[in-house]
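Can't paste images in this forum, so I'm doing it all in text. The chain is below; anyone willing to post the predicted structure tokens underneath?
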Amino acid sequence: MNIALIGASGFIGSALLAEALQRGHHVTALVTRPEKIAARERLAVERVDVNDGAALAAQLRGKDAALSAFSGHAQADVRGYYVAGMRSVIAAAKQAGLARLLVVGGAASLEIAPGRILLDSPDFPAQWHGTAAGARDVLNLLRDEPTLDWTMLSPSAHLEPGPRTGRFRLGGDQLLVDADGRSHISVADYAVAMLDELERPAHRRRRFTVGY
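Text version of the structure:
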């Protein structure tokens, strides 16, 4: 496929980029600092401003799909910055007539009990609250979209460096926990799950999750 990858130089984005190229896809990496990405076969790198909706739509036009690993982790108002950026990404995808938009989500909006999400836990780390709340807001934005063909993939509670095993479980809106009580997934296996969904859509217009 000919895909666009927004935020291709970050922790998750770089794993998605490696997985997509390994599978033979042609990738246009849309990043704020193109110099951070080394040249590779089947890879084009372009500078992006996600808040410039018209320019972003032009960059997305003609692509088979887009993956968004955009985040606002480095911003003071991380929640507001991320939600505003994702509003622009969603609008640009629609303006470009994009066939599919796959979005990196967060774990904090996953249920840990009926009607109770991880973000509501009293011991949820305060330093991640803005990022987590922003990801939950974006999930709600996507759910309100009447026509956009979107998918969001939420990781387990702990998204960490680790091997690409290709062995994991998929779930829906509930947090996945292993036999030892851990909720975790390697960033490499997260990328496998996302690219599997790109190639063989099974969660159109909904969120799913991945974990061991």
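The CA atoms of residues 87 and 169 lie 30 Å apart. The mean pLDDT is 95.
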